Amino acid sequence: MGTNLWEGIGETDRAAEFGAVYGDQALLEQERKEMGVSSETPFGLYFPDGVRRDRQRARKALSVIVHHPVWYAGVMTRRAIGMFKYPGKPVPGMGSAGINVTREKTLGAESNSVIGFVVTALGIVQSISRWVVLPLALGGLWLALRHHLMLMTGLLMATVLYYLLSLAFMHSELRYGLPMHAILLIWAGLAWVAVAQMIDTRLANRRSNGA
After folding, report:
1. pLDDT tens-digit readout, 157-175
2. What's the pTM value of the predicted model, to 2 decimals?
3. What would you report as the CA-atom Rg of the chain, rounded to the nearest whole angstrom?
4. Contact 81, 73 (CB under 8 A)
């Protein structure tokens, strides 16, 4: 935790003010200088004396957080929002939920083939799904609560909140919270099924009225 806390401070716009750094290599270089370890000596994040060093990182980070709570609450809020950013450019320091396929990236010389057309179509579907997955997840959550699935919804929401709060507290990447996103997809699927059933019902009513 100490490593992610300290590097989490290092990825903010006030890193230099607190003497924090971002990235494992930068952290190693910082600690080599502080401990007077030569570049020839084997030195890793947790060797030598990894427990003491990681606790020291945690103490430095927590000291910053305690003395600047309002600022750090804003940092956590931005991280939490960034975890739900599916479309668009990757979030700095957190990455992206995925990269859409394109003919150029995937096929190269085959970009003008029939397969290339299929890949382009798949990329379009990916782009659309990125924009609609979060609204669908929110709709599915509302449907679950509306149908009084309180216990199951509460268990799933506990997992979502666990990842959301713990990952917002320190440096995190989108891949760290994949279980949370998997649960969101469950709710999105619930909403998608409800939409499909509604469309099917309306079509059936039209056919019966026409008959």
Report:
1. 999 999 999 999 999 888 8
2. 0.81
3. 24
4. no
